[in-house]
C-alpha cells in the first residue's frame, strides 16, 4: 500500500512521461530490434498489512504510535528504572494486556485479508502460452499474457479484448462491483485482429495506469507479414477491467495490459486506514490537558521539595538518614528522578484502565447493534454487521451523509406503470382506479374501449419494442427466477393462447439501462413482444402472435446532453422509420405543438407522482432523407477528430419534425421507507449528499421521491449541460455560475444561527445543488494559474448552504474526493457514507463512518464498511437511536473517567505538602491498583453499556434530539471544565475534610490514634462512595444490572477492605493496612466524616440536577410539516417540476 | 477487502429469491434473539430528581445534621484537654538545658520537671499523649523503612532484614532488630506525672501502659521471634540494637514479658506512622479509681521528663497532652462545626428551593418524566 502511494506521490510525473508498450503474447515484433521485456508488476493483489515476519515489530510500532500507549510505556519504563513509590506491575500489566489483545485482534484481521488475497491470487485462469492453453494462478499473469475468460467469470486483470465468442465481435460486461452500474455494457474487440491469436503479432502502446475507470487511451500496432503495421486506436470500449464480470458471452480472449496493483480497480481502491473517532480525538485533547496538569503537578512538587529541603534539618533529619547510594547521587540526577517519581505517583490521573474500559465499552456495545432485531431482514436472513467497534459513538455525531443512489436509495428495480397514447391513458393495473376522468381497467380491455386509434396504439407499442438497445438473454433450461417472472407477467396478456409455455418466454432482458427493460416488458404486457436480434434484424411478436422483423439500420445512442435516443429501422414493407424516445424536455421541441398539448398533462402528472417519464415519437423517413442521414452518420462515425460533435450534429438533424405518439411512466422503486429515513436524517440536522454514478435525470427524480428535494427547493445546477455555452469557454462559464450560485445560496441567505432548525423554517429558501462528475473534476482539478483555485472553496460554501447536494456521474474515486473535501473542510464535520456496491467502497473508506448495505451488488461494500445493515431504513435507528445513545454513553464514560481519577489523585497530590514532598502515596498500593480496575470500573462500564438517558423510541420519534449532541456537544471544553471543577472540588473536600479531622488523630473511643494509612483509607472510602454515587445520580435507566453493579461494587469494596486488612499477607513486605479498615469503622468520627463528605461532595450535583431543565419530552418537537404551502415561493427559474410526494413503502412484487 | 471475490450484481429479482431458498435450508437462522437484554429493553427504573423530590430531602438532612452537629460540638467542648510544650526552646522553660546539651552518647539521663496547674478536675479516664511537631513520620523514606515480617517474628527476617531498612539495616555487620528508621527513632522520653498536694507532698499518678496500642497490632501483627519463648535475650542473640537506642529491644520492659521485645506497646504505637507532621501518640492511660473522686483533681502538678529525644535539630516541638475521651474520640470541634454548617446550608437551600419551586413550579411540573 505504502509503496503504491509513494509511487503515486513521487513517481507520477516521471511515469506520465512515457507510455507502456506491451508485446501481445510476449512475441517479438518485426520492427523492434531486440525484445527487452519491460518490467511490470505481477498480478498479485496485496491488501494485507503484515507478513509473519514483520508483524511483531510493525504492529508494536503502530500501537505505540498511539499517544496513550506510548505514555504508558514511558511510565512503565520509569517505574522499572527509577525507585518509584509504586511497583511497575501496576502499570505494566494493564499495558501488556491492552497491547496483546489489540495485537491479536489486528493479527486476526490481517489473516483474514491474507486469506481473501489468496482467494483472488490463487484463482486459476486460462492463459494462452505458445498456442497451448495453460491453467495458471491468477497472480502469475504477466502483462502481455493472452487470457481466456469464460462467462460469469471476473476478469483477473485489465485486458484488451482481442476476441469474443460472439459473432458481432462484442462482449457484455457488468461493472457492478466497480462502479455500481448493474447493467450490461458492451465492449468491442479491436477491429481487424487476426482470428488466430497464436499468430497475432502486435504491440500495444498505452498510457500508464491511472485510476479513472472511464478513460483509456492506447494504440495497437498489428504486424502482418512484413506489411506496414496496421494501427488501431484503443479506447475504454476495448478495455475489460479487473473486477468486472463477463456476461452473456461464452468466452473471450484478451491481452493483459495492467496487472495486480496497477489495475484500475486496485488504483481505485483506497487503503483501509485506521479510522479514529472524534471522541478519541477529544480524549487525546483531554489527555494532553491532564498530561499538562500531571507535569505541572510533578514540577511543583519537585521544586517545592528542593525548596523545603534547603531549610536546615529538613532534608536529612537524624531520624531519617539517607542511604549511602542516595547521598552519592548527583543532585540534578536526583531532581530528575524525583520528578519522574512524582510523575509515576500521579500517573493514575491518566489511567490505562480508561483505555481498556473504552475499548471494552465499544467492543461490547457494538453487540447491541448486531443483536438488534429491528435490523434483521427476513429477506436475506441477516441482521446488522459490525466490522469495527471503534466508531459506535461516531454514529451519533454525523453531520454529512453521503449516500449512493442505485441500490441504496432505490431498489434499482424499474417497473412500467402506465403509458399514454395520443392523449389517452393506459394503465396496466389489477384494480380499476379512476384517474383523470378515465375509467381504467385491465390494459388490453380498456384499450379497446378507448378512443385512441388502433394504429396509434400499435405504433406506440412497436416503438417501445424497437427503440432500445436491449439484448435478449436466452434462458437456460432450468428456467431461473427471471424467466419465471416474465412468464407470470405475460400470463394475463397471452392467456388466450395455447402455446403459452413457449421456450422463448423464458428469457431475460439485458440492457444498458433498467428503464429500457421496463419499457420492453411494458410493451409485452400489452401484447407486443420483443424476441431479440437476428443478424441486424429485430424480431417482434405482435398481438396476433405474428413475428414481425425490422432491419435495424442505425442506433442513435443515448447521451445525457441530448437526453434521447433513436433507432432507424426498415420495415418489411420497405418503409424506413425513426423511433425516438427521450425526456419530455428534449422531445417536445421536436414535435408538433398540438400533439404536445394532448400529452403534456399526462407527462406532468406522472412526473408529479415521482415516475420517470419518457416521451416516444416517430418519423417516417423518405428514402432521400434516410440516405442523407445514413451518409451523415457513417461519415461522422468514421471521423477521427471531433467525432462526438459531428455525430451530435447529425443526430440533431435527423431527430426533427417527428410526431409524438405517447409517453411512458416508469417507476424506480425506492427502498422501503427511504423517504422517511431521509426526512428523519434531515430533521436530525444532517445534510444529505447523493453521490451516484447514475444519470442526472434519474438521480434527480430519486431525490424528489426521497423528499431530499422539496417542491420549494431551488435547484442550482452545475453540470455539463449548464456549462455548454457556445460563446465562452467552459472555465469562464463555470466561474460565472459558481459566483452566481454563491451569491444566491451563501451571500443572500439570511445568517443562520448554529443549530437552529433551518430546513423547516418557511422563511428560508432551500437550495439543492446538482453537479456532475465532469464539472466536479473541473472544479477540483482546475489549473492553478487561473483564478480557479477559489472554485473549490466557492463550491464548498455553496454546498454547505444547500440542504441537499446531488452529485451524479461520479467515478468511485471522485466520490471519495468529495467526501474528503467535506471531511477536511472547516470544522471538520463528521461524515458518513452509505452504499451497497463496490463503487462505493472508496467513499465508504474515506468517510468517518462507512455503512454498507447488504444489497445485491456483492459484498464489497459490506466488507469494507464499518457497519453493514440490510436495508436503508435501518440507518435511522442506527444513527438516531444507537448512535445517539452510544455517543452519550461514551462521552459520559470519558468525562467520568477523567473526573474520577482527578479526585482520586488530587488528595494524593495535596498530601505531598504534608509529607515533605517525599512521594509518599496517600493510599495503599492495593487501593491504587484496584481503584480503577475493581472498585469503580464496573458501574461505569455497565452504565456506558445500558444507559438510555432518553429511551430509544423517543429518540427515534424526535429526530431533532440528535441535534442536542451534535458537534461533540458533550465532550467540548465546557462540559470538560465542569467535570474537572467537580473533580477538583471533591478532591479538595476529601483531603481537607479528613485533614481537619486528623488535627487530633485520637479518633477512637479508647483514645488510640490513627496513622497515615487510616488517613488514606478514610479518604479512599469517601472517594469510592462519592464517585460511585455520583454515577448512580447520573444513571437515568436503572436496570437490575445497574443496581447489581453499583451496589455490588460498593459491597465489594467493603468486603475487599475487610479481607485485605484481615490477614497478614505473607507475600507483602509491609502489612500497612492490617486492620486499618476495621478500626476505621469502629470509630464514630470516621463514620460521621465519611457521611458528611459524601453528602457535601454530591450537594452541588444534586442542586444542579434539580435546577437544570429536565430533558426528554420537553424537547419533543412537533413533527415538521412537509408541505406547508411553500409552493408559492417556488422560483420560476427552478428547473424543478412540482412533485406530489408519494410513499413508496408499499411493497408489491418485483418484476422482471 | 479488495482482493476477494468480485460478485457481480445479479439480474434484478434473481438473487433474493436464490438466497431466500438456500438461506432457509442451509444457513441456520441468524435472527437475533428477542431477549430484553439484547434488545436493550430491560425493565428499568427511571428516576428523575426534581425539586419536588429533593426538597424534603434537604429539610430532612438539615434536620438530622444540625442536631448531630450540636451534639458533636457539645461533646467536643466537654472534653477536657491540657497541652504542655516541654521542648525547652525558651531560656525560661525548665527543659532548656536538657534540650541544649544533647548527646546520644551521654549515659546520664537529663531530667527536667515542668510544673503546671490544673484549673479543672478531669473526671473520667485521662489519656496521656506525647505530641511531636515538624516530625515527618510520613516521609516516604521513613514510612517504608521497616520490616514487618521481622516484627511479626519471622526468624529469617530477624537475621537478614529487608533492604527497605537501609541505612538502618545492619550495624557492626550484625542485623539490627528491629531494623529501619522508624524503629531507630523510637520516642524515648519518659514522662511521669506527680500531683502536688496542697500540703506540698508529691503523689505519683499511676500511669497504665496497657491498652495504648491497637489490640490487633499487639496480638497479631507484632510477634516476638521464637513464639512464647520468654528468654528474649537468647532469641535476639546475634542481632544488634538500633543505633540510636540506649538498650536492646528485649530490654524495653524487662518487668513484663508481655510488653517486651517487639510487642512492647510503646514501640507498637510508635511504629504506626502518623499521618501528618504534627501528631500525637498515646502514651499512658490514667484510669479512674473510684466514682467519687475525679481522676485528676484540680491543683498543682509536676511533669517529670527524662529528656532523651532530640527535636531541636529539625525545629521540632515536643508536647505532653492530657485529655479525656468521648465516644467520638479526642477533642476536635471541627466535626461538630462542619455538621452544623452543612445542616444549615441544606436547610437554607431547602428554603431557597421551596421558593423557586413555588414561583416556577408550574413550568417544572409539566415536564416531569420521560416515559
Automatic annotation (TrEMBL), chain A:
Keywords, ordered alphabetically: ATP-binding, Cell membrane, Endoplasmic reticulum, Endosome, Lipid transport, Magnesium, Membrane, Metal-binding, Nucleotide-binding, Phosphoprotein, Translocase, Transmembrane, Transmembrane helix, Transport
UniProt-annotated location(s): Cell membrane; Early endosome; Endoplasmic reticulum membrane; Membrane
UniProt topology in membrane: Multi-pass membrane protein
Catalytic residues, chain numbering: 404 (4-aspartylphosphate intermediate)
GO cellular component: early endosome; endoplasmic reticulum membrane; plasma membrane; recycling endosome
Keyword Nucleotide-binding belongs to the record: yes
GO terms, molecular function: ATP binding; ATP hydrolysis activity; magnesium ion binding; phosphatidylserine floppase activity
P-type ATPase A domain boundaries: 124-187
The enzyme's E.C. designation: 7.6.2.1
Transmembrane segments: 64-82, 285-308, 339-358, 976-998, 1013-1032, 1044-1065
InterPro entries on file: ATPase_P-typ_cyto_dom_N, ATPase_P-typ_P_site, ATPase_P-typ_TM_dom_sf, ATPase_P-typ_transduc_dom_A_sf, ATPase_P-type_domA, HAD-like_sf, HAD_sf, P-type_ATPase_IV
One example of a Gene Ontology biological process annotation: phospholipid translocation
Domain of life where this protein originates: Eukaryota
Cofactor: Mg(2+)
Pfam families from the UniProt entry: Cation_ATPase, E1-E2_ATPase, PhoLip_ATPase_C, PhoLip_ATPase_N
P-type ATPase N-terminal domain residues: 38-91
Residues annotated to bind ATP: 404-406, 516, 558, 581, 612, 692-694, 809, 815, 839-840
Domain P-type ATPase C-terminal: 862-1109
PROSITE patterns linked: ATPASE_E1_E2
Substrates-to-products reaction catalysed: a 1,2-diacyl-sn-glycero-3-phosphoethanolamine(out) + ATP + H2O = a 1,2-diacyl-sn-glycero-3-phosphoethanolamine(in) + ADP + phosphate + H(+); ATP + H2O + phospholipidSide 1 = ADP + phosphate + phospholipidSide 2; a 1,2-diacyl-sn-glycero-3-phospho-L-serine(out) + ATP + H2O = a 1,2-diacyl-sn-glycero-3-phospho-L-serine(in) + ADP + phosphate + H(+)
Sites where the protein binds Mg(2+): 404, 406, 836, 840
UniProt region (Disordered), positions on chain: 1112-1136
Cited PANTHER family: PHOSPHOLIPID-TRANSPORTING ATPASE IG, PROBABLE PHOSPHOLIPID-TRANSPORTING ATPASE
Family: Belongs to the cation transport ATPase (P-type) (TC 3.A.3) family. Type IV subfamily.
Protein's name in the database: Phospholipid-transporting ATPase
Upper taxonomic lineage: Eukaryota, Metazoa, Chordata, Craniata, Vertebrata
UniProtKB/TrEMBL annotation, chain B:
Region of interest: Disordered: 1-25, 146-171
Transmembrane spans: 48-74, 334-356
Location in or out of the cell: Apical cell membrane; Cytoplasmic vesicle, Secretory vesicle membrane; Golgi apparatus; Membrane
GO BP term, example: phospholipid translocation
Keyword match Protein biosynthesis: no
Any single GO CC term annotated in Swiss-Prot or TrEMBL for this entry: apical plasma membrane
Protein name: Cell cycle control protein
Species of the source: Hucho hucho
Amino acid at each position: 500500500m505504502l509503496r503504491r502511494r509513494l509511487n503515486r506521490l513521487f513517481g507520477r510525473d516521471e511515469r506520465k512521461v512515457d507510455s507502456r508498450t506491451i508485446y501481445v503474447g510476449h512475441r517479438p515484433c518485426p520492427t523492434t530490434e531486440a525484445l527487452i521485456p519491460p518490467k511490470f508488476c505481477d498480478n498479485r493483489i496485496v491488501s494485507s498489512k503484515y507478513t509473519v515476519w514483520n508483524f511483531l515489530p510493525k504492529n508494536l510500532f503502530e500501537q505505540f504510535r498511539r499517544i496513550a500507549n506510548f505514555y504508558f510505556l514511558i511510565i512503565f519504563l520509569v517505574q522499572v528504572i527509577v525507585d518509584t513509590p509504586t511497583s511497575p506491575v501496576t502499570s505494566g500489566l494493564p499495558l501488556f494486556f491492552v497491547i496483546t489483545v489489540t495485537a491479536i485482534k489486528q493479527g486476526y484481521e490481517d489473516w483474514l485479508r491474507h486469506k481473501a488475497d489468496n482467494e483472488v491470487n490463487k484463482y486459476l485462469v486460462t492463459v494462452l502460452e505458445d498456442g497451448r492453453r495453460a491453467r495458471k494462478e491468477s497472480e502469475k499473469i504477466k502483462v502481455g499474457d493472452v487470457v481466456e475468460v469464460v462467462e460469469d467469470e471476473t476478469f483477473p486483470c485489465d485486458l484488451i479484448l482481442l476476441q469474443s465468442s460472439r459473432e458481432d465481435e462484442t462482449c457484455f460486461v457488468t461493472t457492478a462491483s466497480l462502479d455500481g452500474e448493474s447493467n450490461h455494457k458492451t465492449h468491442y474487440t479491436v477491429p481487424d485482429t487476426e482470428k488466430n491469436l497464436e499468430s497475432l503479432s502486435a504491440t500495444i502502446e498505452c498510457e500508464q495506469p491511472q485510476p479513472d475507470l472511464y478513460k483509456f487511451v492506447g494504440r495497437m500496432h498489428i504486424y502482418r507479414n512484413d506489411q506496414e503495421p496496421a494501427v488501431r486506436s484503443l479506447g475504454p470500449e476495448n478495455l475489460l477491467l479487473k473486477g468486472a464480470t463477463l456476461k452473456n458471452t461464452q468466452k473471450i480472449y484478451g491481452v493483459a495490459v495492467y496487472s495486480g496493483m496497477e489495475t484500475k480497480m486496485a488504483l481505485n481502491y483506497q487503503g483501509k486506514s485506521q479510522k479514529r473517532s472524534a471522541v478519541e480525538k477529544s480524549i487525546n485533547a483531554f489527555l494532553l490537558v491532564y498530561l499538562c496538569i500531571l507535569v505541572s503537578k510533578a514540577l511543583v512538587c519537585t521544586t517545592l521539595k528542593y525548596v523545603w529541603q534547603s531549610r536546615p534539618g529538613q532534608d536529612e533529619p537524624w531520624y531519617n538518614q539517607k542511604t549511602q547510594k542516595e547521598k552519592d547521587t548527583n543532585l540534578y540526577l536526583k531532581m530528575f528522578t524525583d520528578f519522574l517519581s512524582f510523575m509515576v505517583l500521579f500517573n493514575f490521573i491518566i489511567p490505562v484502565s480508561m483505555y481498556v474500559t473504552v475499548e471494552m465499552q465499544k467492543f461490547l456495545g457494538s453487540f447491541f447493534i448486531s443483536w438488534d432485531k429491528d435490523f434483521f431482514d427476513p429477506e436475506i436472513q441477516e441482521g446488522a454487521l459490525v466490522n469495527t467497534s471503534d466508531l459506535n459513538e461516531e454514529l451519533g455525531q454525523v453531520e454529512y451523509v453521503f449516500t449512493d443512489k442505485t441500490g441504496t436509495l432505490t431498489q434499482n428495480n424499474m417497473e412500467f406503470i402506465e403509458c399514454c397514447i395520443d392523449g389517452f391513458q393506459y394503465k396496466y393495473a389489477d384494480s380499476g382506479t379512476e384517474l383523470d376522468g378515465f375509467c381504467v381497467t385491465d390494459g388490453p380491455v380498456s384499450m379497446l374501449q378507448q378512443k385512441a386509434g388502433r394504429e396509434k396504439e400499435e405504433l406506440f407499442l412497436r416503438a417501445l419494442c424497437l427503440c432500445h438497445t436491449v439484448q435478449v438473454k436466452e434462458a437456460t433450461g432450468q428456467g431461473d427466477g427471471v424467466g419465471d417472472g416474465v412468464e407470470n407477467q405475460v400470463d394475463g396478456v397471452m392467456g388466450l393462447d395455447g402455446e403459452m409455455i413457449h421456450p422463448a418466454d423464458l428469457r431475460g432482458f439485458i440492457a444498458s439501462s433498467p428503464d429500457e427493460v421496463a419499457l420492453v416488458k411494458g410493451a409485452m404486457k400489452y401484447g407486443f413482444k420483443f424476441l431479440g436480434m437476428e443478424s441486424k434484424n429485430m424480431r417482434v411478436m405482435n398481438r396476433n402472435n405474428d413475428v414481425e422483423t425490422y432491419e435495424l439500420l442505425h442506433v442513435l445512442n443515448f447521451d445525457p446532453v441530448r437526453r434521447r435516443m433513436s433507432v432507424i429501422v426498415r420495415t418489411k414493407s420497405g418503409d424506413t422509420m425513426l423511433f425516438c424516445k427521450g425526456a419530455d424536455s428534449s422531445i417536445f421541441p421536436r414535435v408538433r405543438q398540438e400533439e404536445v398539448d394532448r400529452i403534456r398533462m399526462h407527462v406532468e402528472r406522472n412526473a408529479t407522482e415521482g415516475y420517470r417519464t419518457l416521451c416516444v415519437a416517430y418519423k417516417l423517413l423518405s428514402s432521400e432523407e434516410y440516405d442523407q442521414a445514413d451518409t451523415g452518420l457513417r461519415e461522422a462515425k468514421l471521423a477521427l477528430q471531433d467525432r462526438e460533435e459531428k455525430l451530435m450534429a447529425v443526430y440533431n438533424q435527423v431527430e426533427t419534425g417527428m410526431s409524438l405518439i405517447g409517453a411512458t411512466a416508469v417507476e424506480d422503486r425506492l427502498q422501503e421507507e427511504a423517504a422517511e429515513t431521509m426526512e428523519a436524517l434531515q430533521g436530525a440536522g444532517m445534510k444529505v449528499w447523493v453521490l451516484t454514478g447514475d444519470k442526472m435525470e434519474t438521480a434527480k427524480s430519486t431525490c424528489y421521491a426521497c423528499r431530499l428535494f422539496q417542491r420549494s427547493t431551488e435547484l442550482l445546477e452545475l453540470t455539463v449541460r449548464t456549462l455548454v455555452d457556445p460563446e465562452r469557454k467552459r472555465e469562464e462559464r463555470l466561474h460565472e455560475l459558481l459566483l452566481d450560485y454563491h451569491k444566491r445560496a451563501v451571500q443572500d441567505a439570511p445568517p443562520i444561527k448554529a443549530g437552529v432548525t433551518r430546513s423547516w423554517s418557511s422563511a428560508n429558501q432551500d437550495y439543492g445543488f446538482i453537479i456532475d462528475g465532469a464539472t466536479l473534476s473541473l472544479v477540483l482539478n482546475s489549473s492553478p494559474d487561473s483564478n480557479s483555485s477559489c472554485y473549490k472553496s466557492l463550491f464548498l460554501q455553496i454546498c454547505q448552504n444547500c440542504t441537499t447536494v446531488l452529485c451524479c456521474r461520479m467515478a468511485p474515486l471522485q466520490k471519495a474526493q468529495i467526501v474528503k473535501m467535506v471531511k477536511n473542510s472547516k470544522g471538520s464535520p463528521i461524515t458518513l457514507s452509505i452504499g451497497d456496491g463496490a463503487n462505493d467502497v472508496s467513499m465508504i473508506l474515506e468517510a468517518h463512518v462507512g455503512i454498507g448495505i447488504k444489497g445485491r451488488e456483492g459484498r464489497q461494500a459490506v466488507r469494507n464498511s464499518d457497519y453493514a445493515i440490510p436495508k436503508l431504513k435501518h440507518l435511522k435507528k442506527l444513527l438516531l437511536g444507537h448512535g445517539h445513545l452510544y455517543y452519550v454513553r461514551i462521552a459520559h464514560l470519558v468525562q467520568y473517567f477523567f473526573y474520577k481519577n482527578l479526585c482520586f489523585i488530587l488528595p494524593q497530590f495535596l498530601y505531598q505538602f504534608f509529607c515533605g514532598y517525599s512521594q509518599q502515596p496517600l493510599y495503599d498500593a492495593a487501593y491504587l491498583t484496584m481503584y480503577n480496575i475493581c472498585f469503580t470500573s464496573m458501574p461505569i462500564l455497565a452504565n456506558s453499556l445500558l444507559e438510555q438517558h432518553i429511551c430509544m423510541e423517543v429518540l427515534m420519534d424526535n429526530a431533532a434530539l440528535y441535534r442536542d449532541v451534535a458537534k461533540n456537544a458533550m465532550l467540548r471544553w465546557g462540559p470538560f471544565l465542569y467535570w474537572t471543577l467537580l473533580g477538583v472540588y471533591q478532591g479538595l473536600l476529601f483531603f481537607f475534610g479528613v485533614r481537619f479531622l486528623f488535627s487530633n488523630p485520637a479518633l477512637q473511643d479508647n483514645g488510640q490514634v490513627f496513622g497515615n494509612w487510616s488517613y488514606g483509607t478514610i479518604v479512599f472510602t469517601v472517594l469510592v462512595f462519592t464517585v460511585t454515587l455520583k454515577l448512580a445520580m447520573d444513571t437515568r435507566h436503572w436496570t437490575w444490572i445497574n443496581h447489581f453493579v453499583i451496589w455490588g461494587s460498593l459491597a465489594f469494596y467493603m468486603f475487599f477492605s475487610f479481607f485485605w486488612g484481615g490477614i497478614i499477607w505473607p507475600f507483602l513486605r509491609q502489612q500497612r493496612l492490617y486492620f486499618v479498615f476495621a478500626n476505621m469503622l469502629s470509630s464514630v468520627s470516621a463514620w460521621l466524616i465519611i457521611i458528611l463528605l459524601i453528602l457535601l461532595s454530591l450537594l452541588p450535583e444534586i442542586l444542579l440536577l434539580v435546577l437544570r431543565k429536565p430533558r426528554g419530552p420537553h424537547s419533543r418537537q412537533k413533527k415538521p410539516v412537509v408541505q406547508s404551502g411553500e409552493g408559492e415561493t417556488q422560483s420560476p427559474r427552478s428547473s424543478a417540476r412540482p412533485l406530489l410526494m408519494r410513499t413508496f413503502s408499499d411493497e408489491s412484487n418485483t418484476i422482471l | 477487502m479488495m482482493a476477494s471475490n468480485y460478485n457481480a450484481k445479479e439480474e434484478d429479482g434473481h438473487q433474493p429469491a436464490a438466497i431466500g431458498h438456500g438461506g432457509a435450508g442451509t444457513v441456520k437462522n441468524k435472527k437475533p434473539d428477542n431477549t430484553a437484554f439484547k434488545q436493550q429493553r430491560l425493565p428499568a427504573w427511571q428516576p428523575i430528581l426534581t425539586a419536588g423530590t429533593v426538597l424534603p430531602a434537604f429539610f430532612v438532612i438539615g434536620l438530622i445534621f444540625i442536631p448531630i452537629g450540636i451534639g458533636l460540638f457539645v461533646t467536643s467542648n466537654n472534653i477536657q484537654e491540657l497541652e504542655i510544650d516541654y521542648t525547652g526552646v525558651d531560656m525560661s522553660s525548665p527543659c532548656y538545658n536538657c534540650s541544649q546539651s544533647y548527646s546520644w552518647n551521654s549515659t546520664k539521663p537529663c531530667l527536667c520537671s515542668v510544673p503546671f496547674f490544673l484549673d479543672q478536675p478531669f473526671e473520667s479516664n485521662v489519656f496521656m499523649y506525647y505530641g511531636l511537631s515538624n516530625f515527618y513520620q510520613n516521609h516516604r523514606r521513613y514510612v517504608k523503612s521497616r520490616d514487618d515480617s521481622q516484627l511479626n517474628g519471622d526468624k529469617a527476617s530477624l537475621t537478614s532484614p529487608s533492604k527497605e531498612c537501609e541505612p538502618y539495616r545492619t550495624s557492626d555487620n550484625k542485623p539490627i532488630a528491629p531494623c529501619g528508621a522508624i524503629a531507630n527513632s523510637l520516642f524515648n522520653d519518659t514522662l511521669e506525672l506527680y500531683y502536688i498536694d496542697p500540703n506540698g507532698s508529691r503523689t505519683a499518678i499511676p500511669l497504665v501502659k496497657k491498652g495504648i496500642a491497637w489490640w490487633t497490632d499487639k496480638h497479631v501483627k507484632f510477634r516476638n521471634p521464637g513464639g512464647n519463648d520468654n528468654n528474649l535475650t537468647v532469641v535476639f542473640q546475634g542481632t544488634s540494637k538500633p543505633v540510636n537506642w540506649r538498650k536492646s529491644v528485649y530490654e524495653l520492659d524487662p518487668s513484663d514479658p508481655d510488653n517486651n521485645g517487639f510487642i512492647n506497646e510503646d514501640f507498637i504505637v510508635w511504629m504506626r506512622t502518623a499521618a501528618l507532621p504534627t501528631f500525637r501518640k498515646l502514651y499512658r492511660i490514667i484510669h479512674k479509681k473510684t466514682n467519687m473522686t475525679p481522676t485528676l483533681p484540680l491543683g498543682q502538678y509536676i511533669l517529670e521528663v527524662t529528656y532523651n529525644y532530640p527535636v531541636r535539630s529539625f525545629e521540632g516541638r515536643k508536647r505532653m497532652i492530657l485529655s479525656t475521651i468521648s465516644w467520638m474520640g479526642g477533642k476536635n470541634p471541627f466535626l461538630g462545626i462542619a455538621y452544623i454548617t452543612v445542616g444549615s446550608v441544606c436547610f437554607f437551600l431547602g428554603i431557597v428551593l421551596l421558593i423557586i419551586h413555588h414561583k416556577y413550579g408550574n413550568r417544572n411540573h409539566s415536564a416531569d418524566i420521560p416515559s
